[in-house]
Task: inverse folding
């Protein structure tokens, strides 16, 4: 796994509030909206009528996201956060590669990946064969998807890479969660081949899904060099000849601001059926 993660890591590293005129200050917000929450939760569970579909068809001024937020777990179980942000998070689902995860709703997709995907589709549609000396090659360790705050340089982002591995490849062969985390750290530093890069393991844990028979290794670590200091949270898992790696990275200077988001992202990463 060391060489796979080394290539993966090196690739990945590359409004005002308006006050309402109808505020009821005599009751807490939870008390005011309790009847609405109960009704909305029941509508989600038993099915949404045609009139409700009109309301849910567009997120008018954030109203739909607010309503779904009244029953966040039910709404997320129905995967409605793929369309509407719920509790400040959206969901990405990749049906081709078979994974999903949540990310902050105000983050946007990496435009470079979108452009490359569009170019690939255009080449696939083209009737002309590609030039012999310019055959496009896809880097197998290129991120499938990446999200980050708009207008930033990419130092703060979350991305997912899917790499081919032998069918019998198992991460647990490296040991427990701590041993897997240490193997990742060794892969980053290159066993001393890159003395200018220092990496340190902070925490490593195992999350198991017995129903899908998948083990998720969640790893938090720091990487430093003379030119940068980063804080990372990664998730690794393997299935059917594929190694999945989610990596969320941030400059150490903003880690305190994104810590909760990163752990939420990591814990939401799962393989789909």
Result:
């Amino acid at each position: 796994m060391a060489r796979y993660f080394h290539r993966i890591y090196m690739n990945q590293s590359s409004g005002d509030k308006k006050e309402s005129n109808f505020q009821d200050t005599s009751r807490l917000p939870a008390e005011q909206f309790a009847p609405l929450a109960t009704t909305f939760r029941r509508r989600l569970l038993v099915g949404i009528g045609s009139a409700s579909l009109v309301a849910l068809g567009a997120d008018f001024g954030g109203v739909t996201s607010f309503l779904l937020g009244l029953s966040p777990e039910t709404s997320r179980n129905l995967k409605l956060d793929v369309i509407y942000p719920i509790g400040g998070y959206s969901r990405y689902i990749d049906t081709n590669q078979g994974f999903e995860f949540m990310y902050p709703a105000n983050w946007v997709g990496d435009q470079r990946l979108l452009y490359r995907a569009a170019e690939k589709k255009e080449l696939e549609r083209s009737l002309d064969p590609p030039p012999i000396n310019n055959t496009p090659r896809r880097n197998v360790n290129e991120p499938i998807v990446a999200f980050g705050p708009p207008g930033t340089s990419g130092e703060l982002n979350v991305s997912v890479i899917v790499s081919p591995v032998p069918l019998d490849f198992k991460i647990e062969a490296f040991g427990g969660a701590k041993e897997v985390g240490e193997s990742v750290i060794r892969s980053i530093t290159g066993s001393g081949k890159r003395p200018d890069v220092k990496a340190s393991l902070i925490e490593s844990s195992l999350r198991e899904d017995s129903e899908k028979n998948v083990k998720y290794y969640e790893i938090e670590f720091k990487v430093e060099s003379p030119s940068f200091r980063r804080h990372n949270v990664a998730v690794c898992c393997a299935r059917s000849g594929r190694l999945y790696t989610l990596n969320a990275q941030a400059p150490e200077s903003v880690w305190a601001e994104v810590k909760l988001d990163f752990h939420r992202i990591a814990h939401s990463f799962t393989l789909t059926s």
Q: What stands out?
A: The chain has eight helices and ten strands. The beta strands are 89-94, 99-104, 108-109, 145-148, 157-164, 198-209, 214-225, 228-239, 242-251, 270-271. The CA atoms of residues 123 and 133 lie 15 Å apart. The radius of gyration is 22 Å.
